[in-house]
């Protein structure tokens, strides 16, 4: 009985070893040949410069090596990353700034774009939810040009810029953060024309950031809203004198009247020979 138990134990051990060998061989066949590529050895923040201790070489299946991966760690020294990288992520060319780029936020700004900072508070900055990597609209509250000087309903709010990328809040540019951060400055990515518009907008009124869905690319053209429209009031009508001066009455031109027709009156007919006839007590004149 005891020998039979030992036999069963030996058979179980042999079957287990065979299963391990077969599984290992199958995994090797699935993985194929392996190569070595460079991965991040630590977390690298956006715009960070790569140093030798930030890189390590690891084995990677040859058939699934990412395009642009590096097989030599020495080629990565001094390069700047354009996205935040986590430990173990492959270092590839598309995530790096061009050779010679200095570290910092300037490495993240695409060609043809500009970075501009605006002052915000807990309200303007959407309670700290405007984080790096989010998109916002910029709205300005100002006064309309024209109209009477003492009008108080000339205040207008208007969205002047749409889908603007937030590059950094204060001095932080980490796009992986989701925790709200109430700061006093936000850096936005703009085209040169948008930078001019933003500079003018903050000089003529107060700015507000409007957080939008990151996957919504559609722009919406709005005319803005005034105080009178907000309160459901009609716009003030101009005074009668000014209205008359602005819109003088039109003079109606008529064709000249035709002269009245001349009425010809026939002259009375001259009487002919008359004879006085006496009949009894009456006397009658008869002309012929």
List keywords for this structure.
about 290 residues, alpha+beta, Type Iii Antifreeze Protein Isoform Hplc 12, six-stranded antiparallel beta sheet, elongated
Shape: elongated
Overall mean pLDDT stands at 80
Number of helices: 4
Strand content: 15-25%
H-E string: HEEEEEEHEEHHEE
In terms of per-residue confidence, which ranges show pLDDT below 50 for 5 or more consecutive residues?
263-267
Based on secondary structure, the structural category is: alpha+beta
Distance between the termini: 184 Å
Task: Give the oligomeric state.
Answer: single chain
Helical content band: 10-25%
CA-based gyration radius = 48 Å
How many runs of DSSP E, i.e. beta strands?
Answer: 10
Question: What would a concise description of this structure say?
Answer:
By secondary structure, the chain is of the alpha+beta class. It has helices at 2-31, 192-204, 227-230, 240-246; strands at residues 34-40, 55-61, 114-119, 135-143, 155-169, 185-190, 206-212, 225-226, 274-279, 282-287.
């Amino acid at each position: 009985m005891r020998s039979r138990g030992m036999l069963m134990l030996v058979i179980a051990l042999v079957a287990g070893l065979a299963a391990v060998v077969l599984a290992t061989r199958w995994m090797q066949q699935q993985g194929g040949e392996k190569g070595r590529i460079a991965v991040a050895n630590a977390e690298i923040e956006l715009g960070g410069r790569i140093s030798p201790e930030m890189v390590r070489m690891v084995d990677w299946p040859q058939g699934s090596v990412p395009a642009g991966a590096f097989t030599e760690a020495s080629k990565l020294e001094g390069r700047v990353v354009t996205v935040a990288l986590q430990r173990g992520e492959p270092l590839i060319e598309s995530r790096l700034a061009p050779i010679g780029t200095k570290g910092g936020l300037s490495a993240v700004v695409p060609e043809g774009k500009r970075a501009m900072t605006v002052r915000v508070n807990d309200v303007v900055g959407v309670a700290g939810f405007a984080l790096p990597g989010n998109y916002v609209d910029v709205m300005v509250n100002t006064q309309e040009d024209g109209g009477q000087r003492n009008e108080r309903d000339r205040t207008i709010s208007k969205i002047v810029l749409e889908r603007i990328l937030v590059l950094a809040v204060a001095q932080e540019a980490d796009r992986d953060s989701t925790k709200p951060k109430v700061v006093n400055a936000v850096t936005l990515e703009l085209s040169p024309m948008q930078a001019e518009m933003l500079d003018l907008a903050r000089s003529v009124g107060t700015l507000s950031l409007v957080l939008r869905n990151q996957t919504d690319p559609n722009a919406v053209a709005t005319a803005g809203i005034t105080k009178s429209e907000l309160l459901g009031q009609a716009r003030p009508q101009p005074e009668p004198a000014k209205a008359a001066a602005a819109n003088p009455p039109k003079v109606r031109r008529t064709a000249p009247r035709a002269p009245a027709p001349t009425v010809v009156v026939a002259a009375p007919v001259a009487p002919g020979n008359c004879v006085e006839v006496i009949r009894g007590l009456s006397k009658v004149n008869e002309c012929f």
